[in-house]
Amino acid sequence: MSIFSSLPFAHALVARQDLPIPAWLFAWGASIVLIVSFFALSAAWRKPRFERENWRSIGAGLSRGLVSRPTQIVCGLLGVFLLGVAIYAGLRGTEAPDRNFALTFLFVTTWLGFPIFSALLGDIFRPVNPWRAIGRTAGAGFKAIAGQGPAHLEYPRRLGRWPAAIGLLAMVWLEVVYGSSGGVAVGLDPHAAAVAALVYSFYTLAMMALFGVEKWCERGEVFSVYFGMFSRLGYFGVHDGRLGRRRPLSAATSWATIPGSAAVVIASIGSTSFDGAQEGAFKSAIQQVFEWLSDAGFGLTTSLRLTDTIFMALCFGGVGLVYLLGVRGMRTVRGAPSLDRLRVGFAHTLIPIALAYLVAHYFSLFVFQEQAQFTYLLSDPLGTASTDLFGTASGGIDFGILSSTAIWYIQVGALVVGHVLGLTLAHDRALVYWPDYRQASRSQYWMLAVMVAFTCFGLYLLSAGNG
Question: How many CB atoms lie within 10 A of CB 285?
């Protein structure tokens, strides 16, 4: 699997009991739900509804309190403090991954928690982003000394969000490939995670100094772009420094206008798919390639990481190919816009699917490990058994909080809901490009095929990995 295969809850995740309904029947049922949803949309949804956010400001006092400068400062300090604790714990704490604060905080609480809560509450990472806080403080200090803000290079428009897409793949590669434990002595230990966090911090701050804090957060900073993508699904948003409500999903329609945005969401789906397939659907093929590379003279660690890198790249390419086939199919419908416009215009429809894959693959992991995060890891972040800051160092994980069957139903439900939302966004965008709702519906036969393919693939990964 990944670095989490060495954590105590990993065994519970794969110990699912026999289900009362076969997995293939779930796939058929999910496909039927998508088909019924498609025809319901075709019949009843004849005008685009998500092109406008219908943003409405929340009460002025509440809005000022939540997005005011003092609140921003407090949140920024909190983000810097927590990042510092994670790096310190990784460098100075135990090398046992299940006892060190760093791994769980970086790869569970942050990496998995922010997408879920951002989709519900909006861009909650922005105020606590530690690199943004440091960059803005440095910029304010420079202005105070020099009398004006630092001059920045113009960010290349064509570069868009490609740095974030590449950084996302690198982040997942570090956790899933470098931290793999498939039978040889490798693994991402807390020290390596802390070093990676330091390297990324220096890189991010350097890019902010070159191109500006807000510009880099919008386009190049991996976490801002990644979490911000999911926040576009949420009910709350900030406009001109004011917090307000908007129509859920509507903010996603304008997200992919920046080059490289499609690569970000495809990277999310592809990397999650690979992590789910690594010890399931792809296990036999990975083993064969690993043995072939080993026989060719590569070391065991190099062979494993090279094999995993190849299959991760194949997942990324496969997801992108399925999406491009759907887009190219729409191009055959009369009155279709250019292929480039379709490719950009429908990229946001994959965001709910990316979130669905995350929830389906990692929901139980998040629920179980957050119990550790807020008990013994919080009280003893170094894992040395020398501190008990909050009196919870003796706490543990209650695996009985979720049954294996309940986990399976949540996984299936997340996949179905995510794909129905993606299909809804796709139909809504089609009505923009094809004002005749009949032509718009015809164009969506292709996206229906894409959604069914992603749904069945997701269920197959879950059943193969958990069976």
Answer: 14
Alpha-carbon distance 173 to 283, whole Å?
A: 17
How far is CA 225 from each of CA 126, 220, 221, 252, rounded to the nearest angstrom? Answer: 10, 7, 6, 13
Give me the pLDDT at residue 220, please.
Answer: 96
Q: How far is CA 174 from the centre of its chain?
A: 15
DSSP category for residue 95 = S
Beta-strand pair 236-239/56-57:
unpaired
HSE-CB at 263 with a 13 A cutoff on CA atoms is 18
pLDDT of residue 19: 52
Non-local CB neighbours of 136 within 8 Å, separated by 6+ positions: 76, 213
CA dist 68 to 64, 240, 275, Å? Answer: 5, 12, 40
Q: List, in sequence order, every residue forming a beta bridge with 56; answer none if it has no partner.
A: 245
Express each pLDDT in 231-282 by its tens digit. Answer: 999 999 888 778 889 999 999 999 999 999 999 999 999 999 898 888 777 8
Q: In what order do the strands lie in the sheet with 236-239?
A: 56-57, 242-245, 236-239
**Beta pairing partners, 237:** 244
**Structural tokens at position 250:** 């509507």
Q: How far apart are CA 281 and CA 126, in angstroms?
A: 37
Confidence at residue 180, expressed as pLDDT on a 0 to 100 scale: 66
| Angle, CA of 74, 80 and 84, to the nearest 5° | 140
Using only the alpha carbons of the chain, give its radius of gyration.
Answer: 23
DSSP state of 5: G
- Is the distance from CB of 124 to CB of 117 less than 8 angstroms? yes
Q: Extract the residue ranges of the chain whose pLDDT is less than 50.
A: 1, 3-6, 8-17, 182-186
Residues in the chain: 467
**So what's the pLDDT on residue 39?**
86
Cα separation of 268 and 245, whole Å?
27
